[in-house]
Amino acid sequence: MTKGILGRKVGMTQIFDEAGKAVPVTVVEAGPCRVLQVKTKERDGYEAVQLGFLDKPRRLASRSERGHVAPLSSKRSKKLAAAGVQIPDKANCEPKRHVRELRGPAGDLAVGAEITVEVLAEVKAVDVTGLTKGRGFTGAMKRHNFSGQRATHGVKKVHRHMGGTGALAANRGGGRMKKGKKMPGRYGNERVTIRNMPLVKVDKENHLLLINGAVPGPQGTLVLVRETNKVG
Q1: Residue 128: which of 15, 59, 230 has the closest Cα?
Q2: How far is it, in rounded angstroms, from Cα 24 to Cα 18?
Q3: CA separation for the pair 101, 6 (Å, rounded)
Q4: What CATH code would you report for 33-115?
Q5: Element (H or E) spanning 82, and its range?
Q6: Is 68 in a helix, a strand, or coil?
Q7: Tens of pLDDT along 98-118?
């Protein structure tokens, strides 16, 4: 069975273990999530569980979003029912702001089931996926940790420039820019997965997960927490 849950990053703090040692942890408000769809190999070509997190007001949800979680009365649905077509099960819940899939067998999970942090109660380590902080268009020094040019001895007003970028000559490298050259550009806002992070504590009452280490993204960002598949 696939063990995972959606949540949002609250922030970082520290707790003390039994030996009195400070442990840095990231607090994640996880769930409760609703199972919106269960995908199978026979119908969809792969196995997955689709989860929804945080209710979305109906006035802001499109008709397709509302129809994905609850049956809607329409001419098309009436024609399909009259023709004997079986409509997939619905979760019968509010539309969700965030919808993500967990690849793998569903096990005993069914459409409409509610998933809480208890699903990770016996898990020792997790993989956390999120979007890193977006820093916009940045220079080479900030983006690639370049040291920059010298502050004196002939360097004038180009201290933070990246230096030469082209090939030395036409007969040495083709006289063109090579792919993958480290240059200024968009920095951050990338999907990153941190693997094998120890799960320190599961707070069932407040729907909180305390994960040892730093989780990608700013406070409030959406994260996907899964049981790690890393061995060793």
Answers
A1: 230
A2: 14
A3: 10
A4: 3.30.160.810
A5: helix 75-82
A6: helix
A7: 999 999 888 888 898 899 999
Place of tokens 């550009």: 185
Q: Which amino acid is at 103?
A: R
Where do you find CATH 2.40.30.10 in the chain?
A: 1-31+122-134+188-232
Phi and psi of 79, rounded to 5°? -65, -40
63, 64, 58, 59: which is closest to 95 by C-alpha?
58
Q: What is the pLDDT of residue 15?
A: 93
3-state secondary structure of 166: coil
- Picking from 171, 172, 151, the residue whose alpha carbon sits closest to that of residue 161 is 151
Q: How far apart are CA 47 and CA 44, in angstroms?
A: 8
What is the value of pTM for the model shown? 0.82
Q: Which residues contact 189 (CB under 8 A, 6 or more apart)?
A: 131, 132, 133, 134, 135
CATH of 1-31+122-134+188-232, one of 3.40.190.10, 2.40.50.140, 2.40.30.10, 1.10.260.40: 2.40.30.10
Average pLDDT over residues 208-216: 94
Residues paired with 27 in a beta bridge:
11, 210
